[in-house]
Every structure is written in structure tokens, then in C-alpha cells.
Amino acid sequence: TETTSSNQGKEPQGEPYSFSVDTQLTVLDLVFLDKKGNVRSLDLSGDNVNDVLEVKEDGVPQKIEFFEPTDAELAALLLIDYSKQAFFWSAYSEGEVWYGPLYLIKELKENDWIGIMLYDLNTEKWLEFTQSKAEAEGAIDRLWRISPNFSESNISDAVLDVLDIANAQKHRFTVVLLSTGFDTFPRRIKTNFFEEVIPRAKNSRVVFYPIGI
User: What is the pTM (predicted TM-score) of this model?
Assistant: First the structure.
């Protein structure tokens, strides 16, 4: 860590002051994904963890002292295609499309966070992140009582907007995407969804669970 001091707005004098600290233990949070990007559990004991996992520091393998699952807080975002065509299909299913989001909300743990964003031509925050299940359920209930404004369904813009938000989050970040899959009028990309959006999503720490409408 490096710090530099200044005196009443004057330019700092001399070289920055720096210090270093040696530590015998470093805690790493890991998420295991299969080749399709699905989260998988890894059942390891202290006896065999070093046979399966390898952690290196500056190219030197380090011994793993212990391995255990954690119960960290989760930030779950519902990203919902709310274009006119998506609304038509959800109405055609007699609201069945909303069962999944409501079930997810019920399954959240006490310290987890839930937020809701809608997209059609634009991306809109429908519910700020909250730990209140009742508030989240109420937001879904209000949603199916309104009519969409646009027919456009810009999934590229919406996913990029979400990735921007995820970079500022400290919690594990999961996105449940309810979408028609249409990308009718994207404005944030120059080529297409597969060339620009998918690579960025793969290189992020966000886990996406898409559900087709």
C-alpha cells in the first residue's frame, strides 16, 4: 500500500511513503463454474484439497491450509424484458412467467439483496436493492399491472448496463435474465451481441441465469 501526504493543498514533497506487511495466511473466495458457466459445488476435505486445487503466488505453489463453503451475502438482480412483445407472451401464459421470480425471492436468505431492472428501448431501475422480500414481491405485483411503452427489446444495452452496476458491487452478483432474446435497437454496441456483449459478460464476475419468455 502506498500513501502520500500533502500540506494544505501544496504539492507533496519527496518520494511517496510506502510500507509492506508479511502475512502467513491469505483468504481467497472462489466460485467454481463448469464449461457452460454454471455454478457447481466442490466437496473437498482438508485431506485432499491440495491434490485437487493449486494456488500460486508469483508462480510458487502455496499450501492450502483449509477449505470450506461460505455463506456470503448474495446480490441478485432480476433483469426483465418488459417490451410489448414480452408483455404479450407473459399475458398469453396467464402470468406463469412470473412464478420463477417470485420463487427466487422467497428462497433468498435474510441477508441477501434483491433488485429489479426492466428494459425495452431503455433500461430502468424498477426496484433498488433491498433485503425486504415483501418489497420485492410487491414490485413484481405492480409490474404485471402496467403496460409497456415500447416494442423494442434491447438486450445488449441492458446487459451492458447491468455489468456496469456489477463492477461497483461488493457482494457476489447474480443476474436472473427474463428475456425474449430479441435485440431490436441496440445503441451501445457497434457490431452485435455475440461479438461485444458475450465476451465482456464471460470476463466479468457476474453469473447469468437466462430464462426465455
Answer: 0.70
